[in-house]
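Regression report. Comparing outputs from two consecutive submissions.

Submission 1:
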Amino acid sequence: MSATPRISTRAARFAGVAAAATALTLGAAGSALACDISEFSAAALCDGEQGVINVTDKDPSGVPATITVYRQADGAEKLIGTQEVKGSREGTTITFKEDWQPKATYRVHVKAADLVDEDIKPLLTTPDKGCTPDKPSEPPTPTPSTPVETATPEPSKPAEPTEPPTTKPSPAGDSNLAETGSSTNTGLIAGIAVALVAAGAGVMYALRRRSSARD
């Protein structure tokens, strides 16, 4: 057997081994550069008093990815928004404006070609304190009460002077004592009665004497 065939066989084997090694190296490098869910992260932060959710993509291969954020509450989900991101070795961050509440839960889903189609784990839980500072409660403003109107007493009128009752003298000769109770003419009447009685007695005496003288 000549040396030429042997050399050709060895050369072919060497070339095959080198090709296999190169394929393995390229495969490992490709796997290292492939997009992976571990290269994505999410955080709930504050931009001043505005709540935001930031999603960062650190995929060095730069595979475009679609990020979708959902808020979970009472067993249901609400879509917050969807954005596209192209990662980098340093990290590319996109922002979703969301006035999140403390201790709320969000699900962040990543879809990158045929390489990634899953959620970032664990689910995003917001901090215990919101972005808006707590304002001290103000005491309730007292409501002014309506003053009760009181009736102003009217000044009392001075009593009109009463005139003393006037006693009019009864006409002379009026002897109705039942109406007056007394009369200032009582003495006069009594005097006249006495005089009449005396006159009558005198007349009777004179008549008797004349009668005796005739006899």
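Submission 2:
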Amino acid sequence: MNSILNTSIAKSSSYQQYRNLIAKLAQDGQTSGTNINPDYIHYTKLNESRMHRLDKTLEVIEDVKLFLENLSKEYIWLVLAESWCGDAAQILPVINKMAEVSDKIDLRIVLRDANEDLMNLFLTDGTKSIPKLIIIDIVSGAVVGDFGPRPKPAKQLILDYKATHGVVDEAAKIELQKWYLADKGVAIQQEIVALLK
């Protein structure tokens, strides 16, 4: 396995540890990462309540559940995230629910800004976009695939909005959150499973 991956996994957190961190940051009026500003603090608080709701309401769809229950290989699912990231708040609870289905998936989370070497291996169009899920075969140490920062329909929604309005503003973010709410994690589940087939 790549030494950067090894180092990141060694200092990674479980989903529960990550959730505890988000809750504490939100409670203390703080945010993760190197860019500490009032907007990011606000987003951290918002994301804590989003994740809390999603942890309670999300469900893995039946065909994805069946596939995950019958995995033949063991995987580490390593996710780059930050507390202020709206997409991470929508996607990480889905990834966690999927990982809970199978004892062959070990979900681990690292913060992007504290793991720049890892982030630089998984850029999206040259940018440090998160969340980024890296799927690693435990036996071979090989990266099977990666997912993120958004499922394809959400990515298209933002591209279309930017083409029409020239910017990604607060209205675009609201449209994106509405899309996530309506989709209920289905596109995320299907795209991740496709990487394992």
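Expected: both submissions complete independently.
Actual: both completed, but the second showed a warning that disappeared on reload.
Relevant detail on submission 2: The beta strands are 75-81, 105-111, 132-137, 143-147.
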